[in-house]
Write a structure and sequence with these properties.
240 residues
Length: 240
């Protein structure tokens, strides 16, 4: 009978663990931390059933005529608690989804309202270009963004804006072209080939680097200005 008593003591320990889980479940208050704890405890609680079943099977072998009332009572209680725990987790998950949906809706509303709020931005002036290689890329990028990609402008309007933005040697490149729809892409291509020439651009910046005037008198401000000029041309050359 000692074996049976040992098995029953193990069984009592398992029942005590199951009771502690039920107490935790009865006092459960939904939160992220408690939900994670419940998930972990439920996993351990489910393992109790396998352990209990193994012990009960050994008892049944030793006591074939044992009273099954207590066993049925435990099994019924076990599955009721298990179902209650799963139900709480399901409700908690639904609450989390509803909160997230509500939060997302509020964020969407805020962004929608922000997009509808009229904002008075300063007027962006069209860039100008006189043929200075140093200024070409900045002029080209701004012109493409402000004029070339403007869907409400036709080619002849874009060509007019292009001509009005040029002066000096840059204007001379397309001086002979008439302002027509067909000539706009030709003019843009001619300017690109002329001023977006890698070899000429490198030569220009190297020349400008060597043309930096020496400082007449050593001072912190002049040294800083000299360093800034040198770094400016070096950065441009590194990007080419």
């Amino acid at each position: 009978m000692s074996n049976v008593e040992n098995l029953k003591r193990e069984q009592t320990t398992l029942k005590a663990r199951a009771t502690r889980f039920k107490t935790f479940l009865d006092n459960y208050a939904d939160s992220v931390e408690n939900r994670l704890m419940l998930e972990a405890k439920l996993e351990k609680y489910n393992e109790l059933w396998s352990e209990y079943h193994v012990i009960q099977s050994k008892i049944d072998e030793l006591l074939p005529e044992a009273d099954v009332t207590e066993r049925k009572k435990f099994e019924e209680s076990f599955f009721i608690v298990q179902a209650a725990a799963r139900s709480k987790l399901a409700r908690s998950a639904n609450n989390s989804i509803n909160v997230n949906n509500s939060t997302n809706a509020q964020v969407d509303t805020l962004f929608a309202n922000a997009n509808q709020t009229p904002v008075r931005l300063p007027v962006i002036s069209l860039p100008t270009f006189s043929g200075n290689y140093e200024q070409w890329q900045q002029f080209y990028d701004m012109f493409i963004a402000l004029v070339h990609n403007h869907r409400q402008l036709d080619s002849i309007q874009k060509f007019h804006y292009l001509k009005s933005a040029l002066s000096g040697s840059a204007a001379q490149v397309i001086h002979s072209l008439q302002t027509t729809n067909e000539n706009y892409p030709i003019a843009l291509e001619l300017l690109t080939k002329r001023f977006q020439n890698l070899r000429l651009t490198i030569h220009y910046h190297v020349q400008e680097l060597f043309n930096i005037s020496p400082i007449p008198k050593e001072s912190a401000d002049m040294l800083r200005a000299l360093s800034d000029n040198i770094q400016k041309y070096l950065r441009v050359l590194q990007q080419l």
